[in-house]
Design goal:
Number of strands: 0
Radius of gyration: 25 Å
Strand content: under 5%
Largest sheet: none
Helix content: 40-55%
Distance between the termini: 56 Å
Shape: globular
Order of helices and strands: HHHHHHHHHHH
Mean pLDDT: 81
Length: 293
Amino acid sequence: MAPSAINTDSPTPVNLPEEVSKPPAGVVLPPRDIRTIVERTAGYVARNGAVFEDRIRDREKHNPKFSFLSPKDPYSPFYQWRLDEVRAGRGNAVSAGRANEPAPPPEPEKPKGPAPPPEFHFSARMPNISAQDLDVVRLTALFVAKNGRSFMTSLAQKEARNYQFDFLRPQHSLHQFFSRLIDQYNILLQASSPAGEKAQRARIQELEAHVADRFHVLGRAKQRAQWVKYQEEQKAKKEEALEKEQLEYAQIDWHDFVVVETVLFEEADDQADLPPPPSLNDLQSASLEQKAA
């Protein structure tokens, strides 16, 4: 018998495999909590058929966490991609309904460089953004972290015509930065929850390791330096391959072409009263409302 519900409130965070966070080009990556629900839903639908998907869509039509079941939703392509992957046998423990079971030991692989260092939880690359937009993005991220994703959905519907809130659209260039801020605020607001207490114990253990070994921080810095060096080496190899490809393109006779159409400029074009073009600095410092004007 097909299960009748999907638990969306997991007491402990679920670590998704790395391949889930690397969708194909052109597919919008949902936030971490939505990715977990997508993975579980794809597993249930793959095992129980499209009828189960219709039942979830009807029952959760007012739940913003399941909006990806709508074909018009920006996260729908991500769900379809995960569903195809699970049906092709490339699922994982989350999609199989075994998220709380210990993962089997991975097969030994050929080393591919040094191990990556721990991720910075409170670090996000600052985009080119004006001070006004930065304040709006930060405050909105704080309210979404406190009130949940339903607040973001209602705000996006209310401010659909306000260019100042264009970053709420997943396709916007500032949406990834906005999602990163939400994750950071969630870490701070969940300090009193069981997950927050677990993270606090991990931080205390880290501090105790610093006291026990005075070279502990130096070892972490060395690990990060080795990782950065490895990344730079890989980048240099890619640039070398790109340069080789460009040399191959340079050997092509680009003068062997056919004129398809000719654009003619008249005297009226020379006398047209056009505004001066904005500089790159003006475009980067302009607010979202000014860019839309």
